[in-house]
């Protein structure tokens, strides 16, 4: 019997524990069906822990570092001032574990309602790769004369050639296994210094990947093209802040934040990668059973693809899409089933092996599984 994968599970705050509970039930089913094993350690972190002990990422770093992967729920709580958990935990993990590429698929799944009239699943199948450790997210800046009419605030955006290179190179390799089109999204006409460096790196690396067609779109124009002409995009690579913003727009196009998912990939095997839905902790609906667990379950699919369990990953994705397509609404009381019930339906389909695989193109998960150098 092969070694079990060691997984850290961080349910976190709000709806995090509910949706991660569903992902773990689906993981049980995938293990039973596909014959691999995981050893899971649950790590308490988030608002309660912080309020009781003052602990942030530092306190769990050593317990996470040796794991094969991290499954993450969500973090954030109205009792904790904005920024403390986000900066002190989520960004700290992305930076310390060098989770350089934030991979966010934007796919419209069959049967899932989109607010974009006339959009069909065939036209919306892209991956946005967000640089995940630099840019404005380094949190450097200063304020002078704070609280006076002469207040001055300076906020820095850090862009290193090495940081850009690793995420652009990853994006080229991702594109190679897909439709072979890479779009750089930036604002080179205004952020000239950073924009030039990004463009230079893309141009330099393009010569190593002659099969990939390279394209450029300004971030404001991206907000126009993303909803109206998503078929233009295969892999999009972009800076941290732009990526944060356009992937929320991507989530809207694909039916809402409940469906959108992400992988925070460490690309050199030096620390574990982390997998999470892109929604927040949604404290207003926590405990009601109203949250859609699909984003979290799909993050499990990304994790399985990353670990090299491509077949299980595709089955989890197909089962999720089949259940999603049958829901009368994507969240809330109108969803017609509780969070846990949706999770159980997905798990049953995975366990029986009856999910309709034709519902999902396998390109993304297949490609992630085929990038072994980013695996631990
Ligand atoms: C995201 C979130 C985070 C970010 C927050 C919670 C720190 O919005 O993952 O997109 O800004 O990156
Ligand atoms: Mg965001």
Bound small molecules, deduplicated: 3-isopropylmalic acid, magnesium ion
> Which segments are poorly predicted (pLDDT under 50) over 5 or more consecutive residues?
none
Considering DSSP H and I runs of 4 or more, what fraction of the residues is helical? 25-40%
Q: Please, what is the average pLDDT?
A: 94
| Spatial strand arrangement across the major sheet | 2-1-3-12-11-4-5-10-8-9
Largest sheet: 10 strands, mixed
Task: Report the order of strands and helices.
Answer: EHEHHEHEEEEHEHEHEHEEHHHH
Tell me the radius of gyration.
Answer: 20 Å
Share of residues in strands: 15-25%
| Annotation field: number of helices | 12
Q: What report would you give on this structure?
A:
This protein is of the alpha/beta class. 40% of the residues lie in helices and 18% in strands. The protein has helices spanning 16-34, 47-53, 61-65, 84-96, 161-176, 192-206, 219-228, 240-253, 294-307, 310-325, 339-352, 363-369, and strands spanning 5-12, 38-42, 69-74, 101-107, 125-131, 141-144, 152-155, 181-186, 213-218, 235-238, 261-265, 273-277. The strands form 2 sheets. Strands 2-1-3-12-11-4-5-10-8-9 form a 10-stranded mixed beta sheet, with helices on both faces. 3-isopropylmalic acid is lined by residues 86, 90-91, 244, 278. This is 3-isopropylmalate dehydrogenase. Keywords: Manganese, Metal-binding, NAD, Oxidoreductase. One of its GO terms (molecular function) is NAD binding. Its EC number is 1.1.1.85. Residues 6-346 form the Isopropylmalate dehydrogenase-like domain.
């Amino acid at each position: 019997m092969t070694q079990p994968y060691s997984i850290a599970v961080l349910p976190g705050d709000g709806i995090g524990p509910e949706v991660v509970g569903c992902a773990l039930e689906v993981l049980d089913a995938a293990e039973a069906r596909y014959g691999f094993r995981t050893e899971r350690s649950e790590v308490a972190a988030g608002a309660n822990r912080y309020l009781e002990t003052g602990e942030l990422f530092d306190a769990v770093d050593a317990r996470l570092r040796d794991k094969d992967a991290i499954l993450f729920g969500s973090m954030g709580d109205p009792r904790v001032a904005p920024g403390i958990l986000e900066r002190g935990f989520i960004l700290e993990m992305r930076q310390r574990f060098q989770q350089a590429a934030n991979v966010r698929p934007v796919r419209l799944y069959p049967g899932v309602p989109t607010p974009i009239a006339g959009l069909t699943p065939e036209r919306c199948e892209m991956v946005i790769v967000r640089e995940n450790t630099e840019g404005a997210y380094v949190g450097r800046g200063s304020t002078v004369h704070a609280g006076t009419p002469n207040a001055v605030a300076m906020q820095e955006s850090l862009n290193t050639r090495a940081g850009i290179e690793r995420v652009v190179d990853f994006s080229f390799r991702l594109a190679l296994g897909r439709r072979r089109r890479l779009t750089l999204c930036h604002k080179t006409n205004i952020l000239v210094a950073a924009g030039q460096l990004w463009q230079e790196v893309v141009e330099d690396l393009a010569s190593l990947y002659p099969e990939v067609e390279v394209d450029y779109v300004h971030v404001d124009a991206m907000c126009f093209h993303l909803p109206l002409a998503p078929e233009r995009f295969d892999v999009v690579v972009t800076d941290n802040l732009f990526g944060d913003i356009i992937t929320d727009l991507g989530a809207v196009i694909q039916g809402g934040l409940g469906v959108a998912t992400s992988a925070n990939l460490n690309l050199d095997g030096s620390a574990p990668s982390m997998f999470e839905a892109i929604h927040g902790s949604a404290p207003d609906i926590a405990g009601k059973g109203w949250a859609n667990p699909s984003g979290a379950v799909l993050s499990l699919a990304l994790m399985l693809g990353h670990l090299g369990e491509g077949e299980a990953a595709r089955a989890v994705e197909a089962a999720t899409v089949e259940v999603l397509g049958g829901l009368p609404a994507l969240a809330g009381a109108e969803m017609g089933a509780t969070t846990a019930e949706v999770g159980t339906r997905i798990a049953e389909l995975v366990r029986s092996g009856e999910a309709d695989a034709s519902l999902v193109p396998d390109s993304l998960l297949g490609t992630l599984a085929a990038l072994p150098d980013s695996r631990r």
